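Dear colleagues,

As part of the handover before I leave the project, I'm documenting each prediction I ran so the next person doesn't have to rerun anything. This entry is a single chain, and its sequence is reproduced below.
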Amino acid sequence: MTIDLHAHSTASDGTTPPSELPRLAAEAGLTVLALTDHDTFAGLAAASAASDIELIPGVEISCRLDDAEVHLLGLFVDPGHAGLAAELELIRTDRDRRGVRMVERCRELGAPITLSQVKEIAAGAPLGRPHIAAALAAVGITDAFTPEWIADGGRADVPKHVLATADAIGLVRAAGGVAVLAHPRSVKRRAEVSDTQLATLAEAGLAGIEVDHPEQPPEVGARLREVAADLGLLTTGSSDFHGDRKPVRLGDFTTSPEVFATLREAAGRP
């Protein structure tokens, strides 16, 4: 088995339609793929209908951990769970509000982009920073994810509604899934998740952490494996595929069959 547990489609901020992901995954040699679009299950039906590999229902939830934003992967979740669906809808609608305001701020700072341009790039998906970054790049601003523009806390950044991470873990578990913290020490994020914070999340029911990831160098992954072993957490590997938005390909980073089997068992799936 070759397993990638973190991938995005055009249902959020990827560039690949969900119906195309299973074919690309099979061509990459994958046998298992989790579709984990940001705060939505909108692409799951199309991906499932087209799938000739094992497709795991998943979602990547935007969360708050102390003063920082982190992302939580919910794997094997029931997309129809009422509590989770309601919270994701709230996150998505607030994402659109935030996107509109961020476009306004970019314009106030002198960037000649428009809301209609960003919506065209999003193609029906909830407005996200990658869509705004693409619009900025189209007018020659290639450093969008910096404090000058739309980085966390940047001049054009706007706060958004996010769940407390412990609450998100509880929702994932209530929806029949297992919770894995995505890229906890990505070199592209402002704040790292500390050992102490990981211990607190483990007590709240976190099942694992994403260790092998394109934004986490090998030495970071090695340290995370040590922490995970101390806390009894599983360690996963994933590409975090976004299509053409990032250079990584499906299957560049993978999860071991043994860890996958333990995650499946924890979710009560056959």
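The beta strands are 3-7, 32-35, 54-65, 68-75, 163-164, 178-181, 208-212, 234-237. The chain has a mean pLDDT of 95.

All the best with the project,
I.
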